[in-house]
Amino acid sequence: MGEFSRKDYISHLPQSIIETILAKVPTRDAVRTSILSKKWRYQWATMTQLVLDEEYMGFSCYRNVSRNKILRFIVRYFLLHDGPIHKFKISTLYSISSTEMDTWLLFLSRKDIKELLLEVWQSRNYWNFQTRNYWIFRTPSCIFSCQKLTRLKLYRFKVEPPLGFQGFPCLKYLNLFGGNVTIEVIENLISGCPLLEKFKFNNEDILALTVCSPNLKHLTVRGIFKYIYLEHTPLLVHLILDFTSLQWEDNVPVRVPVTHNCLKVISLGEINFEEMKQVSYVRQLLLQSPNLQELHIVAGDVKCLNPNAAGMDFWEREFPTDFTFKHLKIVNMDYSCSRIDIAFLIFVLGRSPVLEKMCIKLESFDDISDAELSRLQQASANIQLHLFD
After folding, report:
1. Which pLDDT value is given to residue 372?
2. Contacts of 171 (CB under 8 A, 6+ apart)
3. At residue 323, what are phi and psi to the nearest 5 degrees?
4. pLDDT digits over 354-380, tens only?
């Protein structure tokens, strides 16, 4: 009985199960299993997923851990690691130098990397007071040689592919947050990823973005844009578009009319329903999304009455009399606070024969008359209407 109880069952588990166990614990704890026995000494060194953030590194109280200690841990980890690395993620508030980042990425480019997620701070002050901009990393050219990448996230990187770069043939997920990228680079990068299914882009420059991606299903775009044109996205299912600080060109409506038969969910942020260019863009988008099922809107803060406002009757006037949202079932609007917002909701209610639920979060009831609220409630007699303030 004593001999049976001393038998080491864990060490005799299949290698695939051991690696699964190690992948479920913080990286530092996985490394610490090396003290269990001789067999466990280097089990961690063949892990194919390296997640280096405060949680998975085991530095839950990382503010009490020095930056140098964390960097030494990462360097030793790389030096002792053996075999391929399919996923590498680093997310830390500690500053990292460009030299350190270049060294790590050169190492990873030789490790059959497939998922690369980099969320780090520059080693100097985060805000450059001379240029009035953020310090950003220059993307090492070795990243563009990682042709097996399926997921890539870069947080505040300057993206400059080398000459002759043809794209990432296996990439399915791309997330570019901030940083520095020209419109030519971003459009070539998208078109050079034929399998791309999900693209997130948070932009800080004024760009005119054209998206051409035949397999794209999820698109999230936030930032400052002259226009956003979905030129060739036949499989697009979910669109998240933030209108914050948009500087629309006069020809924006002309840039929208492409039919999106697969588009089922539209999320629009910071819309000013008194801004003619914005509502014209939304009008075209809704007209060209015949199978829309969910519409989520965050209304922008209207500072003052716009003399060129769309007007209370804009939606009824600008849509065909026989137009309906044939498949729309859910509508959410947050922070609606004006009569024009309510006019839009009443229009949607009247044109949505299968609508099941509408949730409205009102910032204030002050600008909405009892008659308008009554009309809204009457129009929603057959659906679930939820009003919050």
Report:
1. 67
2. 149, 150, 151, 152, 193, 195, 196
3. -75, 135
4. 999 888 887 665 556 666 667 776 766
DSSP letter (8 states) at residue 54? T
Give DSSP secondary structure letters for 233-248. Answer: -TT--EEEEE-TT---
Tokens of residue 23, six digits: 């992948």
Distance (Å, rounded) from C-alpha 370 to C-alpha 112?
64
pLDDT given for residue 131 in this prediction:
41
Q: Helix, strand or coil for residue 22?
A: helix
Q: Return the CA Rg of the chain.
A: 26
The amino acid at 225: F
Which residues, given as ranges, of the chain have pLDDT below 50? 1, 56-62, 123-132, 253-254, 304
Tokens 């280096």 locate to 52
Alpha helix (H) residue ranges in the chain: 2-5, 15-23, 27-32, 67-80, 98-109, 183-191, 276-287, 314-318, 339-350, 370-379
Query: Which residue from 215, 114, 202, 206 is spatially nearest to 157, judged by alpha carbons?
Result: 202
At 141, list the tokens. Answer: 């050219």
What length does the chain have? 389
The 10s digit of each residue's pLDDT in 318-357 is 999 999 999 999 999 887 667 778 888 889 988 999 999 8
Q: Is the dihedral of CA 157, 159, 165, 168 positive or negative?
A: positive
pTM of the model: 0.82
Both tokens assigned to 198: 């999900």
The type of residue at 117 is L
Q: CB-based burial of residue 349 (10 Å sphere; 0-12 exposed, 13-18 middle, 19+ buried)?
A: buried
3-state DSSP call for residue 101?
helix
Burial of 388 (0-12, 13-18, 19+ CB in 10 A): exposed
SS3 100: helix
